[in-house]
From TrEMBL:
Keyword annotations from UniProtKB, A to Z: Cell membrane, Exocytosis, Membrane, Repeat
A GO BP entry: exocytosis
Gene encoding the protein: Sytl2_0
UniProt cross-references to InterPro entries, sorted A to Z: C2_dom, C2_domain_sf, SYTL1-5_C2B
Name the UniProt record assigns to this protein: Synaptotagmin-like protein 2
Ranges where the C2 domain occurs: 51-173, 188-317
Gene Ontology cellular component terms for the protein in this record: exocytic vesicle; plasma membrane
Organism, as annotated: Smithornis capensis
């Protein structure tokens, strides 16, 4: 049923178990260390203040150095976050979409106690012009809070395919509220076909399996974003959060030059207790493979979407209604393959 099978142990307590034959043992982070797990780079407070004001910037592409440049000049009349002190500590952040990953983020310095910050900074991206033209620039302004969550102050999004590249002048743009599509990641990135199954401990006979297992069968993905004329060289990564260690990491092979790749890859995570299914989250992400860096194309998160993992608030427990329903169906139908067709999204 699949050309590659990976099996990895997964546990949520401090006690090691004897790995099963053919599996790789994994000393996964204990519950007490869950709070140190990865948080979303987009975490922030979107609703505490209303977006207002303007931002002045210019765009340019340096053909010689193959470099995209965002010249951030200044902002005016930003919203006040700390009303008691009448202050905001703003900075500007940029992403190239759909590659909204850590490597795609740039940001300016923080200017303290001002709603009219002056930056005069250049944010640079090493990127081929052909790839740049199929992306969007997301420029947003944030209040920096070193002791809490940063507050969103406004944004602007530019389709670089239709940008006038002869325009290198600084121009003013009004800052807009966060769009629902940006917050929820509602943008078409393709659809993943997969099946999942939960095998409870001892359900196949005495001590067989010795611990619960989650089986993930990644079948194919259709209609991926095409980053180059020849197509896309894609592969799928898998983690079971809250574990983000290398021992938890699994991936498929790379399928070259195909926006509709067939992976047919099965992964088995053992070491599960049935109660762990409420607090764990299977994260599957699709990437375009390149020599220097991989580009994020989209992903899904399978879990209950409660925002909590073992009583701790985490940003990655954010499954959509479709993803939650898929996971719940698996929990209710032990030892049965549950088939799904889920849209990829921003994570």
């Amino acid at each position: 049923e699949s050309d590659t099978a990976s099996e990895i142990s997964f546990q949520f307590n401090k006690h090691k178990k004897t790995p099963s034959v053919g599996s790789h043992s994994s000393d996964v982070a204990s519950v007490s260390s869950v709070s140190g797990s990865v948080l979303s780079v987009y975490s922030g407070d979107f609703g505490s203040v209303d977006a207002q004001g303007t931002v002045e910037f210019a765009l340019d592409y340096d053909e010689k150095n193959r470099e995209f440049q965002v010249h951030v000049s200044q902002c005016k009349d930003l919203a006040v976050v700390d009303e008691k002190k009448g202050r905001s500590d703003p900075y500007v952040k940029t992403y190239l979409l759909p590659d909204k990953a850590r490597m795609g983020k740039r940001k300016t310095s923080v200017k303290k106690r001002t709603v009219n910050p002056v930056y005069n900074e250049v944010l640079r991206y090493k990127i081929e012009k052909m790839v740049l033209l199929i992306q969007k620039l997301n420029l947003s302004v944030w209040h920096n809070d070193p002791l809490g969550r940063n507050s969103f102050l406004g944004e602007i999004e530019i389709d670089l395919a239709s940008w006038d590249w002869s325009n290198r002048k600084l121009n003013w743009y009004p800052l807009k509220p966060r769009s629902l599509s940006a917050v929820n990641g509602v943008d078409h990135r393709g659809v993943m076909s997969l099946s999942i199954k939960y095998v409870p401990p001892g359900s196949l006979g005495p001590k067989n399996p010795p611990s619960g297992e989650v089986h993930i069968w990644v079948k194919d993905v259709k209609d991926l974003l095409q980053l180059r004329p020849s197509g896309v060289d894609s592969f799928v990564k898998c983690y079971v959060l809250p574990d983000t260690s290398k021992k938890s990491y699994q991936k498929t092979r790379v399928i070259k030059r195909d926006t509709n790749p067939v992976f047919n890859h099965t992964i088995v995570y053992d070491g599960f207790h049935t109660e762990d299914l409420k607090d764990a989250c299977v994260e599957l992400t699709v990437w375009d493979h390149e020599k220097l860096t991989n580009h994020f194309l989209g992903g899904i998160r399978l879990g209950l979407g409660t925002g909590l993992s073992y009583g701790i608030s985490v940003d990655w427990m954010d499954s959509t209604q479709e993803e939650v329903a898929f996971w719940q169906e698996m929990m209710l139908a032990a030892n049965e393959w549950i088939e799904g067709l889920l849209p990829l999204r921003s994570l």
